[in-house]
Design brief:
Elements (H helix, E strand, L loop, with lengths): L1 E6 L3 H12 L4 E7 L2 H8 L5 E7 L7 H7 L5 E6 L5 H9 L3 E4 L4 H12 L7 H11 L6 H5 L6 H11 L4 H8 L3 H15 L4 H10 L9
Parallel strand pairs: 1-2, 1-3, 3-4, 4-5
Length: 216
């Protein structure tokens, strides 16, 4: 059973999301919170909380700060109204595992929770590209670049392709590898760099200058 918390300051939004998710046999909404501070308080008392659906703009404590404080705990899926919301990129930096537009369909919402709970990142390439192109840092941090020294040439190549929004299947086709081999390279790349998922890999690649804004 996937235990979920829904965090949003709008009652109708919270209740609507909770109703949809609770109707699934493998998902249980165990808590609802009205702001980030409320989410942190409740999360501390919930055993095996898997996913937090987090709104960004809320009173008392916003979703970005709450995401930062939940780092290392449940995985966070950011809920946003606009796919180019500047706060979304900040939330990804804070440790979120992906984001979902509030206008997404019922099936997209359910799938997003399952994907995040399974340990993957919800990365929609077209939207992610626009976010990165608009908000990526241009300066190189030596500490960030140093994290890449542990990667093999192939792992670095895979990182670049991940940062460009390619799926494992697309990477496999481009490098003439099996999809299983690509998955292995991605897993090793994440483990070596201490990254949690593909979202953080995208950010690392841009911060390290491996990929430039606008590059495809």
């Amino acid at each position: 059973m996937i235990k979920v918390m829904v965090v949003d300051d709008q009652d109708l939004v919270r209740d609507g999301i909770a109703m949809i998710l609770d109707g699934q046999p493998d998902i249980e909404v165990v808590a609802q919170a009205v702001d980030g501070a409320d989410a942190i308080r409740q999360a501390a008392a919930i055993l095996d909380l898997a996913v937090v659906l987090m709104d960004v703009r809320m009173p008392v404590m916003d979703g970005i700060e709450a995401t930062r404080r939940l780092a290392g705990g449940p995985r966070v899926l950011i809920l946003t109204t606009f796919d180019l919301d500047e706060y979304v990129y900040d939330a990804l930096r804070a440790g979120a595992s992906g984001f979902l537009l509030k206008r997404s369909s019922r099936d997209e919402l359910i799938n997003a929770v399952r994907v995040i709970a399974a340990g993957d990142a919800l990365l929609a390439p077209p939207v992610t590209r626009r976010l990165i192109d608009r908000f990526a840092d241009t300066g190189l941090d030596p500490a960030v670049v140093a994290r890449l020294d542990v990667l093999t040439a192939r792992e670095r190549e895979v990182l670049v392709l991940v940062a460009k929004g390619n799926s494992n299947a697309e990477i496999a086709a481009g490098l003439h590898l099996t999809e299983h081999t690509v998955k292995t390279h991605v897993s090793r790349m994440l483990a070596k760099t201490g990254l949690r998922d593909r979202v953080q890999a995208v950010i690392l690649a841009y911060d390290a200058g491996l990929v430039s804004a606008g590059q495809r």
